[in-house]
């Protein structure tokens, strides 16, 4: 899934709620179950659950210094998280985070890998290095500073 598409889904996740079963069926993948593989809750996987309310995802967000207020509407929740994050790079970080959660989920489902916060973190670092490589000079310094302070 491209980062641009991931950003689109994240921006409109209350409108484009796609459960894992639908997405896999669309791609002609039949799975034994469509529960979230990142947690033990046995909830059906939806984008809101996968990216925001899943306990594993919440840990990932917490490591990045991003907190979600689920008492707010979706747009207010994103605006509030951005304000609390306090940096202009919130969009880049949050889209990359969703992408890393998505690829971690796929590695578990399709390649039989195990759930691992360490492996997710390394994936985030690797993808972040690629973002830094192609970042605009106006954002590069802020991205580097955030990364050094976070990791």
Question: TL;DR of this structure?
Answer:
The protein is built from eight helices and no strands. With 151 residues, the chain is an all-alpha fold.
Q: Mind sketching the topology for me?
A:
Layout: H1 3-11, H2 20-26, H3 47-53, H4 55-64, H5 74-85, H6 90-111, H7 117-134, H8 137-150
Helix pairs in contact: 1-6, 3-4, 4-6, 6-7
The secondary structure category is mainly alpha
Silhouette: globular
Total count of helical runs of at least 4 residues: 8
- Helix percentage: 55-70%
Order of helices and strands: HHHHHHHH
Organism: Setaria viridis
Protein name: Reverse transcriptase zinc-binding domain-containing protein
Any overview of this molecule?
By secondary structure, the protein is mainly α. It has one domain (3-150). Helix content is 66%, strand content 0%. It is built from 8 helices and no strands. α3 packs across α4. The longest helix is centred in the middle third of the chain and has 22 residues, at 90-111. The radius of gyration is 15 Å and the shape is globular.
List keywords for this structure.
Reverse transcriptase zinc-binding domain-containing protein; 8 helices; mainly alpha; 151 residues; single chain; 66% helix
